[in-house]
Amino acid sequence: MTDNNTWTAKIKRTFTSVLPVAENRKGKCIHCSRCCKLPNVCPFLRYRGKKSYCAIYPIRSLNCRKYPRTESECVTLKGCGYRFK
């Protein structure tokens, strides 16, 4: 997998976030916070002990709601609760 942890990749993920999530995406968010650090730490990322959460979860952006939308966009496969079959 190529390194998609760049600002260019982030911009691409933002623009493509209006597209549907891949049908082969399985799993759920396990609050690992890896996606909240792409390519920098989100200012809305908060911690309660070792568990992370989003301070604006109900109104978070589409690219946050849908990440990882496709396997090719997924940078955080190791440790992420989402998988692609």
Topology at a glance:
Elements lengths: L6 H10 L8 E3 L17 E4 L2 E4 L7 H5 L15 E3 L1
Structure characteristics:
single chain; 85 residues; alpha+beta; two-stranded antiparallel ribbon; 2 helices; 18% helix; globular
Explained architecture:
This protein is of the alpha+beta class. The protein has one domain (7-84). It contains two helices and four strands. The strands form two sheets. Strands 1-4 form a two-stranded antiparallel ribbon. A hairpin with a 2-residue loop joins strand 2 and strand 3. The radius of gyration is 12 Å and the shape is globular. The two termini are 16 Å apart.
Task: Write the element-wise H/E pattern from the N-terminal end onward.
Answer: HEEEHE
- Give the neighbour order of strands across the main sheet: 1-4
According to DSSP, the number of beta strands is: 4
Please mark out the parts with pLDDT under 50 across 5 or more consecutive residues, or reply none.
none
Question: Main β-sheet: number of strands, strand sense, barrel status?
Answer: 2 strands, antiparallel
Quickly count the helices: 2
Q: How many discrete structural domains?
A: 1
Q: Distance between the terminal alpha carbons, to the nearest Å?
A: 16 Å
Structural class: alpha+beta
Q: Helix amount, in percent? A: 10-25%
Rg value:
12 Å
Strand residues, percent: 15-25%
> Per the principal axes of the C-alpha atoms, what is the gross shape?
globular
| Average pLDDT score | 90
